[in-house]
Amino acid sequence: MNNKLVPIEHDGKRVITTDLLAQVYETDTDRIKQNFNRNKDKFKEGLHYFKLEGEALKAFKDEVSFSDLVGKNASSLYLWTERGANRHCKILDTPKAWEQFDNLEETYFLVKEQRKAFQPKTAKTESQLAAETKRANAMALNAKNRVAERFQKLWDRADVKPEYQALALESLFSEEGVALPKIALQGTKVTYDKGAIAKKLGVYSKSSGGKTPHAQAIGAIIGLLDIAPDEKEAVPYSRNGHDGTDYQYTESVIGKVHCWLEEHGWPNPVSVDGKNYSAVYRAGRD
After folding, report:
1. Cα 243–148–167 angle (5° rounding)?
2. Residue-wise pLDDT tens digits, 130-143
3. 269 cis-preceded (ω within 30 degrees of 0)
4. Whether 90 contacts 73, CB under 8 Å
């Protein structure tokens, strides 16, 4: 994303145009403009943005590097600083906007710092190093707190129970040495995802050479069964860079899937709603 952005500096600060900011946050320019107009009291010119008009705008247009960043008939142009981009991120308050602002903060707005001439550094004292480490740890913990707040909003909308949210947050904060109170896990059921059910029943994907539990086949079968509300739980997940919620199931559902496979003679492929799932069945099932 940041490799595509044209580096812009104004008044000694790295800035970004409204159009580019909308592209980065995956929204439209009208939304950025509306948010600004509705929250002008939260933005200060020279601190959060620069407004180019008249000769300043003409000079900006005349620069070859910037000629494509502003329309020929535009009478004004807003350039947002890092702090201004942060304000817009807070107003939008979407997971994508927060993710992209973190990217901007860590790359685009740091480019100027990276270009500074080398300056010999004096050795830091132990107290200085300790203070820097403490600050870095605090920043890391603060970033994770922001991530946790955003995910909790999503999990609440998906009706994920607090104890399962706690389990997900435990893995998020474990590296920071934050221990989860055991009381937060009281009442948590033993549940299994579709991959774990496939492994227990010995249902493996033929396309993987029989090495990978066939979670898709199990999910298709579960879709045919009568599953009671207390036999499943919405649980947060994070896989291959994707986060969201999925269902896990109790031991009783494993029994129902087993019965379905028995009744249908452990079929290969498993055919559900016109889709075929080629399966390999292992004798030594968990």
Report:
1. 75
2. 777 777 776 666 77
3. yes
4. no
